[in-house]
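User: Please fill in residues for this 146-position structure.
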């Protein structure tokens, strides 16, 4: 059975760590703002096993004028479960949730390797690529929800 529900920041680490911070100390899984009330962490479970996570931070990007904006961070699906449609389900649920907060602008810094995944979901690149230290090349991507 597949479920998506809110989880704590700490719970995300079991997916963030192997997928996004492999070989790095577990503390590197902590993101600034993880514990804020406005931050939402979602987990996708198959039966009782957590296999995918996404976090939504209320955070503005200067490229956009919308008053309410959320930033996706920590988007990850465990390696053996990738390319099975779970990533799409998590992003769609994130879009659904932010609309409940009357927000219609989602943006994030996408890893170069994930840009095509997000493009499939209707996200657009804005601006030039940039490097995030120790992680690699990224692009700002966004979608205005209607
Ligand atoms: C990127 C990621 C979150 C996608 O999740 P996923 O569950 O594998 O994706 P889905 O199975 O829902 O894929 C949906 C579609 O995107 C495609 N896709 C998935 N990952 C892709 C990628 N990295 N590049 C290009 N296309 C990709 C799938 O093939 C599928 O296409 P289809 O509908 O034509 O079959 C996941 O692969 C992951 O955790 N990657 C490593 C960490 C990472 O890069 N996170 C994002 C940081 S910005």
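Assistant: Residues filled in for all 146 positions:
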């Amino acid at each position: 059975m597949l479920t998506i529900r809110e989880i704590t920041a700490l719970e995300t680490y079991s997916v963030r760590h192997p997928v996004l911070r492999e070989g790095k100390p577990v503390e590197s899984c902590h993101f600034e703002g993880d514990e804020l009330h406005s931050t939402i962490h979602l987990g996708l479970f198959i039966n009782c096993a957590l296999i995918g996570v996404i976090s939504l931070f209320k955070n503005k990007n200067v490229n956009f004028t919308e008053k309410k904006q959320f930033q996706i961070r920590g988007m990850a699906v465990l390696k053996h479960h990738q390319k099975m449609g779970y990533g799409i389900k998590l992003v769609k649920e994130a879009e659904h949730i932010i609309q409940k907060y009357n927000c219609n602008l989602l943006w994030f810094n996408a890893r170069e390797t994930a840009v095509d995944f997000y493009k499939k979901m209707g996200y657009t690149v804005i601006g030039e690529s940039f490097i995030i230290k120790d992680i690699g090349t990224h692009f700002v991507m966004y979608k205005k929800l209607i």
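For context: DSSP finds three helices and seven strands in the chain.
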